Amino acid sequence: MKRRFKKLGIWETVGIITSDFNLAESFFEVIYKRHKRKVVKFTKSKCNLYILLKNGTRYMWIRPTDNSRGYRFSKVYLDHNIDYRLLQEVILPCCVYAKPKDIMDLNGKKYPRI
After folding, report:
1. CA 89, CA 27: separation in Å to the nearest integer?
2. Among 91, 57, 89, 55, which residue's Cα sits nearest to residue 76?
3. Sequential pLDDT tens for the chain (114 residues)
4. Measured between alpha carbons, how far is 53 from 42 in angstroms, rounded to an integer?
5. Geometric angle at alpha carbon 4, from 13 and 36, rounded to 5°
6. What DSSP state is assigned to residue 94?
7. DSSP strand E in the chain: where?
C-alpha cells in the first residue's frame, strides 16, 4: 500500500481542525518556520491554509462543519472548542487512518475527549 502512495507522492496528511482562522494561521506559521527548507508549497488565503513538504506530508486546515465530511487524515490537531456532536459525527470519521495517539490538541498533547 505504501508503494502506491509513494507513486502519488503522498505519505501523510495532517489535519488542523479549528473554526478560528487566526489560531490556524499562527499554527501554520510555526509549521512553516519549523520545516522552512522542506516546504514545496504554502497556500495562505482567507479561507484556505495548506502546506506541502518535500517528503509528501500535507498539512491542511478545515473548519469543523457538516461540510467537512470526506476528508481523511493520518494525524489530527483539534481545537478544544469543537461541539461534541461534530466531534463524534464529522471529525472522528475523518480520523480513520489516525491512531489514538495521533489525535492531539493544538498544543501537541493527547486530545482529552476521545
Report:
1. 25
2. 91
3. 445 445 555 578 999 999 999 999 999 999 999 999 999 999 999 889 999 999 889 999 999 988 888 899 999 999 888 888 888 999 989 888 888 888 888 877 777 665
4. 9
5. 40
6. H
7. 12-17, 39-45, 48-53, 57-62, 75-78, 103-105
Specify the pairing of strand 48-53 against strand 39-45.
antiparallel
Please name the residue that has the C-alpha cell 461534541: 84
**Cell digits of residue 62:** 478545515
**Beta carbons of 29 and 45 less than 8 angstroms apart:** no
| Residue 64 neighbours by CB under 8 Å, 6+ apart | 17, 18, 19, 79, 82, 83, 86, 87, 90, 91
- As to burial, measured by CB atoms within 10 angstroms (0-12 exposed, 13-18 middle, 19+ buried), residue 95 is buried
Q: Which residue has the cell 495532517?
A: 14
Conformational region of residue 62, where left means phi above 0, alpha means psi within -120 to 50, and beta covers everything else: beta
Number of Cβ within 10 Å of residue 14's Cβ equals 18
Q: For the whole model, what pTM was predicted? A: 0.82
Report how far apart the first and last C-alpha atoms of the chain are (Å, whole number). Answer: 28
